[in-house]
Each structure stands twice: as C-alpha cells, then as structure tokens.
C-alpha cells in the first residue's frame, strides 16, 4: 500500500478537494539557517532519528536514505 503525505499529513485517499486545500494551507516549517557541516539528531528531510552509521557522509543533516 502506497501512502501519500501532504504537508506532513498522511492521506487516506478518500479526502475531498476542499479537505486537500485545507491540508495544503497548513503552516510550513520555517527553514533553519544550518550549514552543511552541522549534525542533526533527526533527519532534516524525513525527520526520522538518525542512528549509528545511517548518517550521510556528504551532509550530516540528512540520513543516507534522503540523500
């Protein structure tokens, strides 16, 4: 089963057009002012906890799956 996410909300597939518009209007996260060398505890993209060696060697703010 494929899940679609819109602005951090998992869609079930039976939402009306108006419901989708309301989900789209939700506040978006403010962009941080981090640099490429910074290390985050959670992935910047998927917000999953980065454990052990799953941190990207290219950019410490992301997990290996997101880069």
Structure explained in plain terms:
By secondary structure, the chain is mostly loops. The chain has two domains: 1-27, no CATH class; 37-67, no CATH class. It has one helix and two strands. Strands 1-2 form a two-stranded antiparallel ribbon. The longest helix is centred in the first third of the chain and has 8 residues, at 17-24. The radius of gyration is 15 Å and the shape is elongated. The two termini are 24 Å apart. The relative contact order is 0.15. The model has no long low-confidence stretch (mean pLDDT 80).
> Numbering strands along the chain, what is their spatial order in the largest sheet?
1-2
Q: Structural class of the helix and strand makeup?
A: little secondary structure
State the end-to-end CA separation: 24 Å
Average predicted confidence as pLDDT: 80
The succession of helices and strands, N to C, reads EEH
How many separate structural domains? Answer: 2
**Regions with little confidence, pLDDT below 50 for 5+ residues:** none
What coarse outline follows from CA principal-axis ratios?
elongated
Question: How many beta-strand segments?
Answer: 2
Question: In angstroms, what is the radius of gyration?
Answer: 15 Å
Report the sheet-strand fraction.
5-15%
The major sheet is characterized as: 2 strands, antiparallel
Q: Helix share of residues?
A: 10-25%
Task: Note the total helix count.
Answer: 1
